[in-house]
Amino acid sequence: MRKPKTQKASAKSRSAARSAKSTSAKSKGAAKKAAKKSPPRKTLAKSVRSSSARTKAAVDPITLSVVRGVLETTQREMTLALEKTARSSVFNLAHDYSTAIFDAKPEMILQGQDIPIHLGSLMPAMKAVSAYFGDDIHEGDLILHNDPAFGGSHAIDTCMYKPVFYKGKLVYWTVCKGHLTDIGGPVPAGYNPNAKEIYAECLRIPPIKIWDRGKPRNDVLNMIFTNMRARRDQEGDFNALIGACQVGERNLLAMIEKYGQQQVDSCVGELLDMAERHMRSLIKQVPDGTYEGVAILEDAGHGFGDFEIKANVTIKGDNCHIAISSPPQIPYFINSYEGNSHSGVYLGLMMFAQLPPPYNEGLYRCVTLDFGPKGTICNAKEPAPHMNCTTTPMETLTDAVRLAFEKAVPSKVSASWGHANGLNIAGWDTRHDEEYVTMVLATIISGAGATPKQDGWHAVGPECCFGALTSGDIELLEYSYPIIIHRYGLMEDSGGAGEFRGGSGTAWEVEPLDKEMTFIMFGEGRRIPAVGAAGASSSMIEPKVGRLERKIGGKVEVIKDNIIGTIKPGETVTNMNPGGGGFGHPFKRSIEKVVWDVKNGLVSIKGARADYGVVIKDKATLEVDHAETAKLRGAQAAH
User: Fold this and answer.
1) Under 8 Å CB-to-CB from 138, ≥6 apart: which residues?
2) Residues 547-577 as b or e (16 or more Cβ within 10 Å = b)
3) Is there a contact between 551 and 597 (Cβ–Cβ < 8 Å)?
4) Do 616 and 622 meet the contact criterion of CB atoms below 8 Å apart?
5) pTM for the predicted model, two decimal places
6) In the predicted structure, residue 518 carries a pLDDT above the cut 60
7) Binning pLDDT at 50, 70 and 90, where does residue 637 land?
8) Based on CB atoms within 10 Å of each CB, which residue in 35, 323, 455, 634 is the most buried?
């Protein structure tokens, strides 16, 4: 067996590790602090030292299992604390948050099974935050951060980092990230399709202490909340994030008290090494070579046209290098800073890998990344606008990586999920005499991609969240905001055609109760459907892509660009989300399955013929014209 090569960490990574080890020391002086006020300019760390650099110690398998269980239970309890104590529907209904645990290096020792777009970016963000404060990290500190220039995803995903000390020594970090309903700026909910630079989007928060040695900095918190809409929601969600970090701290300290620091460290080291072995074993099975995947990022209203995003995956032994190529950044809110692009690449990798737990930073030790030059769409630099980046271009970046791996191992890769095509809403709530604003996560629930063995799941997307979001009860959304939801359900013909059909997308129709309501569109997937796999393709495209229908006075306007609009009581908007891609040629799908889909409203009679070559001659009985079906399928096969 080829010996794994030790990946060299970047200078930035080594600096972060050294500073983390010497936490709680006194400040090095005003000059040193002043030098840290601007974000790190070097490329964020691409890899962490391999297991060969870690001191080995014997690990009892029973204790390893118990410690692993404590870590996983701690992470789940952190997420439950967020769900049960948060105020906004984005947290307590849709679950748009993630949690993780880091060691003192800082290296992610457990990532929650939460939102993929959060988790990949947490690793470079945690390193940037640790490096920024260096020696000035103390017991009782609590750090807030959202700035993409410091490794964050997009600014409305606000993150809290709590250092955990044991007997005066930094041992862990508990980390929580959540999508707030507002982050300041000129447009409610942060998504501004008219922004030309990041300053027109949000309140940027570089790493800042909101607790200093256990004492809340109320002046800082007040300044932040004063710049946000719907202050009660933001305060409630902040408290939930703080509480979740404290829950994690409590459980981790109890674990060390029970099993001892040395024993726990050995178990954590083994879990990281285990994840590394899983990934290296998988990569070693992929034939050596370079594989290219290309995905199209559609123009959703900026006017610059469609763009290509390319991923070149190079496999050599049990190591993988992924190089991304993207066009120059544009003055539109779809630029992705490097931290966010980590998430897009890692999701594409994990869609291919489909590895068992544990899920931690050890998975990526054998993976190196190159996002291309600064100033590009997938490696943006200030002052590029970015707020839509967690869906666009992140999902297209994921597709490019997935398509590259499909060329390497065609039998293993599944189809793409539907891309996010979403809606934020805002207005005045006369019931409480206050402004309301929220991201409606139900509006981005698309269909999952099909796999080599089964149809895609319905209403579980979008791709960037990979099933971690939930819609929430319609009644609770109507209780929370002054709206009426007229429809929420699956859309006919929305799933991508294939031997295994893509999951269906959803339609969400809303009307304001008594005041004008602003809606803000974001995302894409309104012209190009979810990418299929293994020869899957669809003839009926329009039902499979996203769109918004605004109904005023009986007239319906179809909108496919990202806009800011308004509707009044008596008027509605219906947001329609795409389905997932299919797998395999659709004419290989059995006639019986196609008829079942028609019977259950997933495929229309027209769609059965156009997409699957199945001719239904009786609408009432759904009787199939087998002769015409054989003729149609045979003619297509001849081409």
Assistant:
1) 23, 24, 163, 165, 212, 213
2) bbebbeeeeeeebbebebeebeeeebbbbbb
3) no
4) yes
5) 0.87
6) yes
7) low
8) 455
